[in-house]
Design goal:
2 helices; 31 strands; about 375 residues; mainly beta
Length: about 375
């Protein structure tokens, strides 16, 4: 019996070390085949070969039952055409490698905005509605099109990685750079007003930013200064940092993610440790998990099960966890202690950089790495 209910692998023209999943118009769904829409940013070896890739992966099915493997060659030939996954892409030229890409959760009938952090120090906003239309047609083009970004901000001193759209206020965006500065983007009728007064309480590079999923003006950030901070954008920028967790990890804090229904933040650091923080009591972590043997590169809570989250690390693993499992003695497998909350370990990719749960399809995860994308669903979640 397979540990996967579904597992698909596909490659793009160049490695994509950041991506996001579109909240599509198909809505909440279950069953097969699965269709997913992604937007990814490339890290091509040649700087002028980078692009944003709008992706539609469809006809994603579970593996065939064992008895299917025993079918005759003639029967297999008849079925091959209908069972294979279908990948369609539309690409937009991007100046410089893409450090991070995030899709605005508020999609309108005419516009779908995507923000990208460029290694050249600029943040671009793109309207990918034409590309989404293109991948729905049979006239798919393999050409990389050059279009002007909808809006570009060049006010960051250096490149960065921190970036998040608000889920409660349409069009509000935060971007943080490697010189510790965070800018707030306020939407206007046809562009954005980007704050000149920055949130700059961190001592060094801002690695990740997360808006609160419930409070309009509150956000959190983490940094290579080892801290996690919670902010309120209604206060003057120099007074906006309301809570500081110093030395949240023993080294750089790489990633954070805010639970949608519980007052928890999950964080991952260069120390390979995952921590759970209760926002009601931030003087110490609520839980600590040590499994990964390399820096944590991505963490994300399950969109509907508030006790489940996923994490990826530079040890080429994705781990799935369930806080709902009551603490007990660790399991011992091959002389190695395994925390009882560890549900599943996904392997087979090199240098996994990001993971995201599909917002509409329960239990479906996508991951990107140096060599490929995986879209999968385990029997554990």
């Amino acid at each position: 019996m397979s540990a996967y209910e579904m597992l698909h692998t596909f490659r793009t023209r160049a490695s994509c070390l950041s991506f996001d999943i579109l909240k599509d118009r198909l809505g909440a769904r279950s069953g097969y085949p699965v269709t997913a829409y992604l937007v990814a940013g490339t890290q091509a070896q040649q700087g002028k070969k980078n692009s944003l890739i709008v992706l539609k992966a469809s006809n994603l099915n579970p593996p065939k039952p064992t008895e299917d493997e025993e079918k005759s060659d003639e029967e297999e030939d008849e079925e091959d055409g209908g069972d294979k996954e279908v990948l369609k892409t539309a690409e937009i030229y991007h100046a410089g490698a893409v450090n991070r890409v995030r899709i605005c959760p508020h999609v309108t009938d005419t516009r779908t905005f995507v923000a990208s952090w460029s290694e050249k120090g600029k943040v671009h906003i793109w309207d990918i509605a034409p590309q989404l239309t293109a991948i729905e047609t049979e006239q798919e083009s393999r050409d990389v099109v050059k279009v002007k970004p909808f809006y570009t901000f060049g006010g960051h001193v250096e490149e960065g990685y921190g970036m998040d759209w608000s889920s409660t206020r349409q069009g509000y965006l935060l971007t943080g750079d490697c010189t510790r500065h965070i800018h707030l983007w306020t939407p206007r009728e046809s562009d954005w007003l980007v704050s000149q007064q920055t949130f700059s309480a961190h001592g060094s590079s801002v690695e990740d930013i997360q808006w609160s999923p419930n409070e309009d003006h509150v956000f959190s950030s983490c940094s290579t200064d080892k801290s996690i901070r919670v902010w309120d954008d209604r206060a003057p920028a120099h007074k906006a940092c309301m809570i500081t967790v110093p030395n949240a990890h023993d080294s750089d804090v790489n990633v954070i993610n805010w639970n949608r229904s519980e007052p928890f933040i999950v964080s991952g650091g260069d120390d390979g440790i995952i921590k759970i923080w209760d926002l009601r009591k931030l003087d110490s972590h609520a839980a600590l998990f040590k499994h990964h043997s390399g820096p944590i590169t991505s963490v994300e809570w399950h969109p509907t099960d508030s006790s489940v989250f996923g994490a990826s690390g530079e040890d080429n693993q994705v781990s799935l966890w369930d806080l709902g499992v009551e603490s007990s003695e660790p399991l011992v497998i091959n002389d190695t202690e395994v925390p009882p909350q560890l549900l599943f370990i996904h392997q087979g990719q090199e240098e996994i950089k990001e993971l995201h749960w599909h917002p509409h399809i329960p239990g479906v995860l996508a991951t990107t790495s140096l060599d490929n994308f995986n879209i999968f669903k385990t029997i554990s979640v």
